[in-house]
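ENTRY TYPE: paired fold submission
RECORD: A
CONTENT: sequence, then structure tokens
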Amino acid sequence: MSMTIIIQHSLDENIAKKISSKFQVFNTHIRHKIVSANLDDLRQQYQIDFNYLPKLDLSSIQLFVSDMDSTLINIECIDEIADFANIKREVGVITELTMQGKLDFGSSLFKRVSLLKGLSVDVLDKVYTQRLSVSPGGRSLISFFKTKFIKTAIVSGGFTYFTNRLVKDLALDYACANVLSIENNQLTGVTEGLMINAQAKSDFVKALCDKQGWSYSQVIVVGDGVNDLDMMNIAGLSVAYHAKPSVIKHVDIIINFGGLDKIIDLFNQ
């Protein structure tokens, strides 16, 4: 009878003893070797994250790719920009429906950006400095990948103003996002150049891998919305981070309770 290794993303041995007698304690987590388990039931019962140990050889990973809004950072930037125009609720509803896959991303972005027309570019700095934080565990995760010589990228349907600053702040290697059009220090209500939608995100990851000579299986992708699924589907390992139900059912790893640093538990630490 084959055994399965399950990662308990917690060091609570009282919980571990209730699950199995065969468990091993690591630096940041516990691993169980059991025949089978219902991970959804375990997650709900103990309110911590559980995942199967990936069969993928993680020592082969070359690239880590993260979505930005509500994944690598704690906010949806466009909603916070809208707050300065007193239309956060209106824009937020559109954002949420888009991330659930109920609205087309392209038309949704066009509509939301158009509502920002006339806002001062100073608002962007205020959002970054006053509203934006790196998600829990995000800095530790990026630092960990650097120790493993794994390249890091942020690929977003958001805006380059924020991805560029995060690249500098976190010393990320690559970034891709939409460009906000600005004239006379005001947002014009449109974006410039290629729209970074689900397909463009996937294309960016593919092109980066092709250029560097990496296999797509050597990539980890983390995201939270349906517009992340295309790039998740090509990756060797896909991670849903506090994600929508429509995303969770399609991924390898689910993080619903902990921070991004729970991804480190997948490696033998």
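RECORD: B
CONTENT: sequence, then structure tokens
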Amino acid sequence: MKVYILDLGKLECDENWMVAMSTSGNKHHKNVLSHWIEIPVYAVLIDHPDGKMIFDLGCHPQANEGYWCEGLVNTFPFTFTENQRLEHQLALLNISPEDISTVILSHMHLDHIGNIHLFKHADVYVSRKEFEYAQTIVHASPDPNKHGAYVKADIEVPVKQYHLIDDDTELFAGIEFISLTGHTAGLFGLVIHLKNEGVLIFPMDAIYNQTVFGPPAKAAGLIYDSIAFFKSIEKVRQLAKKYNAQVMFPHDMEMFEKMKKAPDYYC
């Protein structure tokens, strides 16, 4: 089994979205400026004995051109080069989207499901709670500004079949899908057991970066359930200790710069 990190560009945002209260004032400093940062966006391609599969799908390439509402574009502008389009990243491995029959989604936010339109032929695995919450929020109001970080057009893309997961499970040999709720109603992470490089844990937005992971753990700026959020962090910490695993944060630029990127791989 080989694991490839696909570089899909970057988002910009106020750091307070990544680490809550990362910039805050006091009586001596009442007008504190925000810290504007860049964070990576990536997908994980898994070359498995049962076939090629992909974990998360980045942002839609037309995000800034009307696909996302203005509020999202202003808050999280997305930038990428042609070489960072998902199709081009797959081409580095001589793979096309059609070669991938299995998609696994950590959750359904705009920067994790954005290329779902390339996989209408695929089986898609996602948490039942996440699927139901995403469907509800984008259909409860016609105003996209009330949909949070979900994009209705992403959620409505037809696929071969959605497989809705309720509990921690081994989806495929050596690949565990684990519940890490808190950031969203039903976020799941991936634990991948490799022959040579040990265990990789991809918590995705359950733990944005090393600062949130700690210790001590810190709150992110976007949380659905704060109690579950901190429980999920400690769940990952215990798994990392159990397996002596590498925790692969989703939006940590410092870590991302050190990760192996396709066509290089973990095995």
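NOTES ON RECORD B: The longest strand covers residues 2-14. The chain has one domain: 2-20+37-258.
STATUS: closed
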